[in-house]
Amino acid sequence: MLSSQVVIAVSLIYVGLLYTIAWWGDKRARAGRSWVRNPTVYTLSIAVYCTSWTFYGAVGSAARNGLEYLTIYLGPTVIFLGWWFLLRKMLRISKAHRITSIADFISSRYGKSTQLSVLVTFIAVIGTTPYIALQLKAVATSYTVLTVWGSSVSEPFVSTSHIFADSGFWAATGLALFGILFGTRFIDADEHHEGMVAAIAFESLVKLFALLAVGIFVCFFMFSGLGDLFKQASQTPRMAGLLTLQPDSGTRWFTLMALSMAAILTLPRQFQVIVVENVDERHLATASWAFPAYLLLMNLFVLPIALAGMGLLPDWADPDFFVLSVPLSQGQSFLALAAYVGGLSASTSMVIVAAIALSTMVCNDLVIPALLRLKWLRLTERDDLTGLLLFIRRASIVLVVFMGYIYYRSAGAGDALAEIGLISFAATAQFIPIMVGGLFWKGGTKTGALTGLAAGFAIWAYTLLLPSFADSGWIDPKLITDGAFGHPWLRPEALFGLDNFAPLTHALIWSMALNAGLFIVISLFTNQGGLERIQATLFVDAFSRKGGETVIWRSSATIDDLYELVERFLGRERAYHAFRDYGTSHHTAWRGKGEANADMIAFSERLLAGSIGAASARVMVSSVAKGEMVSLDEVLEILEETSHVIEHSQRLEQKSRELERAAAELRAANDRLKELDRLKDEFLTMVSHEFRTPLTSIRSFSEILVDTPELEAERSERFLNVIVRESERLTRLIDDHLDLARLEAGHSDWHPSEIDPKAVLRETIDALEGLFNSRNAKLRVDIGGDSVNLFVDRDRLTQVFINLLSNAAKFANPEQPEIYVRGATHQDGYLVSISDNGAGIAKEEATLIFDKFSRGGKYPDNKPRPSGSGLGLAISKHVVEHCRGRIWVDSKPGQGATFHMFIPVRRHSANSSL
Amino acid sequence: MRPPTKLTERALVLAVTAFLAWIPPLVGVFSLDGFVFGLPVLFVYFFVGWAVFIALCAWITRKLRQSAQQPEDI
């Protein structure tokens, strides 16, 4: 037990520390050296999600329902894992439209509707009240547990009758004061509260370390590790039951999961820290995994603490406060005090952020629109409104916090923390259909949104809020048991006879079904106004539009009119800076009687939207730029036309890209054709040249024979022999040429069969023996290895061998011709290498010799080349390649050449063309 | 530059998988008596799974940020 003086002193010192941090954070921010603008602080500020519900209540619900408490943290984890799809879009839109609150966000989507922003604000305030009550209850109870524990009082929770003796009252007062001091010091154009964010981030660290400290103490000092703790717990049936899923908890599990997923998006304070206080979209990327990691750490020891508390403490000890009572029961006052500070952090951060978020909404979306309607106030003509705005916000903070206090004093004191919090979750979850629906469906209309939201909220109030009032005796409990007007169908917890669900699930089924159903159906049967359609498009297509803002003002307003208007809401200094910056960046005049252009009016509206909300800003600007708005239909037409043009130009772009590609292909084809044409000419020249040589000699010898009949028989016979030889050569040339032409065209006949290349090679060598002998060539043959079967045309293969061998004989050194034939069997084919000892082939000719008519080897001594058609290698190459083989030559000039050919074994398939 | 569709699809599948893993009936499948590593099965299922999802998310997020070089596309 700790003395109340110590506890109060520690609380005050802690709150003082927070003030200092917040003040310092603001100071740094204003000096432009903010350390709040980084992803770590952003992540920690999102951890405002973990309130005293988490800090104290999670242990309580773990003690009652086991691991079910995790659903409240797994839901947000899912949303953050999918940040790319939902949160990022919300952030992008909010930045583009200078959204200041969730009410502003929703009303902006549905055509900046004031009615909708009022309704959203109303629901948010009512829905948050139980949540704030929960925090106040936690502060008050934790104080009592800490100061009363172990004394003669058997019940640790005492509800004091006198309001000034109630620690909850002082907590509320202190928190309201803090909210006022740091949430509303000035009216900012972009609603960033850097000091507050700094304090919240610090508090997130404190509560995390406090809970971890208690957890580590419980697991490793009271027990010897987590395993030991769980082992002991599993001995007791009641605790062993907590280690698995509770029977029949499926629907409740699902409900809680859905609720927590909704809550992280729609709770006003979460919207405030995630969206409004965000300074850089990139921070969200870090938070996407860092925030779930924070949640994991926060929850790691919750179940162990709950089990330890159940095992050690008497039955009357409230499991909601095991975090304090377990260390206290072990005599660890200091640890309990640290835990109390952690709990205080959790409560204060929630109340502060919620109060600031709600006060912004109450001011911008509730009070200002109302005041603007009261014409006799002449609000639009007042000089400086910043004071008024600040006063409204401060009053709203006090109002919000003390509404929570009233709920705590009257209705919520008896319930478990988690149950109070869930009522709040269910209220704000009503925003989900119109919010998420509005982000992805352009068809949602304002009327649909209003009806759906109102219906959902009414059902929530009837099925959840009313019963909680009945519990506290505010209304007749008969209403709950018998239903309104005594009609059993109207029982709040079994509406329309649906009585087989828990109250929370029951409420959610009806409210969500009606909410989403009405939203969709009414949207389908109503039409959107002009502004609605524009806003819907801007929201849904947030990523596909550049620039994002539509200018819909055509004005006759002067620049000074606008300037003075903005000055009234933002104050002299801020208005001056904003306009000066605008003027310099847009290179336009920013003071004077000149006509303001449409862009400037839109800029002023955005500036105002940042401090008084989109709906009010619209009214204010239209009071200056009276009646000169372009009609919305006109704007829509322009918009639609523009999007048509964009679409059209995109299509044109695509078309032109396609054309370009086609043109490039055509150019390539044309180049290829030109090349082919050149080759054809070359070929023709070559062919004629090749044919001409034998023809010339035939003709000249024939002429000699004709002209000189007196030629002696010996000479004429020699001439005739030349004629015959040259004719043969011509015939061979033509045959080879025809053969090659057939090969090239793929028209030649192939008669493939299983043959052994070794045998073919051997036969060919034998057949050419005469040729070798006639040249005195020294022939070495080395056809070793295993047999292999190739599936090729035997005659064609022989033709290739003959070509290569006769070439070798022809080109070998004329004095001492040497030829070396090798055959080698490989696993996947047969390799033949035929070497000669001739002059060799220059490197640059190694590939050319396989072309038609290129008789390789320019002899250095310009000796006449051995005769031949010049087509042999070209034909060989075709044949080998037809068999999927390869033919190439290795040569060093002066040292002979080696021709290699490799033919792979081919598994002969049915349609083999070989 | 927009990140490749495949990457954003992975991010979506990650979130959907996490959701499906943490609701009945799959949760019920792991609701078993008994211990792994000296800890209750369901406890290990949640916290190890949680850590794995966080690690995967960090990895995908890094890829997304790398592919979306321009700040306005992040």
Label this structure with key terms.
heterodimer, A: 914 residues, five-stranded mixed beta sheet, disordered C terminus, B: 74 residues, mainly alpha, 3 helices
Structural account:
Helices cover 65% and strands 5% of the residues of chain A. Chain A has 34 helices and seven strands. In chain A, the strands form two sheets. In chain A, strands 2-4-5-7-6 form a five-stranded mixed β-sheet. A two-stranded antiparallel ribbon of chain A has the order 1-3. In chain A, a hairpin with a 5-residue loop joins strand 6 (886-891) and strand 7. In chain A, helix 7 packs across helix 8 (167-183) and helix 29 (632-707) runs antiparallel to helix 30. The radius of gyration of chain A is 47 Å and the shape is elongated. Chain A starts with a helix and ends in a 10-residue tail after the last strand. Residues 152-160, 546-551, 857-865 and 908-914 of chain A have low confidence and may be disordered. Chain B is mostly helical and 74 residues long. Chain B has helices at 5-21, 26-29, 41-67, and strands at 35-36, 39-40. In chain B, helix 1 packs antiparallel against helix 3. The termini of chain B are close together. The relative contact order of chain B is 0.19. At the A-B interface, helix 4, helix 10, helix 12 and helix 14 of A face helix 1, strand 2 and helix 3 of B.
Task: Please outline what is shown here.
The complex is a heterodimer of chains A (914) and B (74). Chain A has 914 residues and is mainly alpha-helical. Chain A contains 34 helices and 7 strands.
Radius of gyration of chain B: 16 Å
Number of strands of chain A: 7
How large is the count of helical segments of chain B?
Answer: 3
Helix content of chain B: 55-70%
Radius of gyration of chain A: 47 Å
Q: Percent of residues of chain A in beta strands? A: under 5%
Oligomer: heterodimer
Q: What secondary-structure arrangement, pairings included, does this model have?
A:
The complex is a heterodimer of chains A (914) and B (74).
Chain A: H1 4-30, H2 39-46, H3 52-65, H4 71-81, H5 87-97, H6 102-109, H7 114-148, H8 167-183, H9 194-222, H10 226-233, H11 237-240, H12 250-266, H13 268-276, H14 281-300, H15 302-312, H16 322-329, H17 333-373, H18 386-410, H19 417-428, H20 432-440, H21 446-471, H22 478-482, H23 503-525, H24 530-540, H25 559-570, H26 572-586, H27 598-612, H28 614-624, H29 632-707, H30 713-745, E1 752-755, H31 757-767, H32 769-774, E2 778-783, E3 790-793, H33 794-811, E4 818-826, E5 829-836, H34 872-882, E6 886-891, E7 897-904
Parallel strand pairs in A: 2-4
Antiparallel strand pairs in A: 1-3, 4-5, 5-7, 6-7
Helix pairs in contact in A: 1-9, 2-9, 2-14, 3-15, 3-17, 4-12, 4-14, 6-7, 7-8, 7-17, 7-18, 7-19, 7-21, 8-17, 8-18, 9-14, 9-15, 9-17, 10-15, 12-13, 12-19, 13-17, 15-16, 16-17, 17-18, 17-28, 21-23, 24-29, 25-26, 25-27, 27-28, 29-30, 30-34, 31-33, 33-34
Chain B: H1 5-21, H2 26-29, E1 35-36, E2 39-40, H3 41-67
Antiparallel strand pairs in B: 1-2
